[in-house]
Amino acid sequence: MSRYPGERLGLPESGPQSVGRVGRRFAAITVDWVISALVLMLISGRDYLTISSTAAGQLQLLGVFVALQILSIWAIGGSMGHRLLGLFVVNVHGGSLTWWRPIARSVLLALVVPALVWDSDQRGFHDKIAGTLLLKSR
């Protein structure tokens, strides 16, 4: 049993390179959702209430969210929310994030339940399947 999240992976208990904790993760996903809504509102010319009032609008918003997750994790190592909150996504096995890892992680995140099932290192099932890890940058 680990004393803290990330110990089994050889990560520090706190500070840079430690596992990103729940508070920052929740704040980051909130930022990402707001950015996705703003992007969809700009593209569609509709307000948030109109978008969220239909199943089609909700799916469009989820699609924008997933697309932004994939693109930003691939391009800058984390979503906009991650980067603003001092987090970044890495390959748990080292090396670069190959093309499929951001896709798998983002699609599983969109399904919600995989992100709510964690291990002792606070890695969600979406991160375990994708072979990724969310770390603090500061």
From TrEMBL:
Superkingdom of the organism of origin: Bacteria
Subcellular location: Cell membrane
Main location: membrane
Membrane topology note: Multi-pass membrane protein
Parts of the chain that traverse the membrane: 26-43, 55-77
InterPro entries: Pra-immunoreactive, RDD, UCP021697
Record carries keyword Transmembrane helix: yes
GO cellular component, as recorded: plasma membrane
Pfam families the UniProt entry points to: RDD
Keywords of this entry: Cell membrane, Membrane, Transmembrane, Transmembrane helix
Start and end residues of each RDD domain: 21-131
Protein name per UniProt: RDD family protein
Species this chain originates from: Aurantimicrobium photophilum
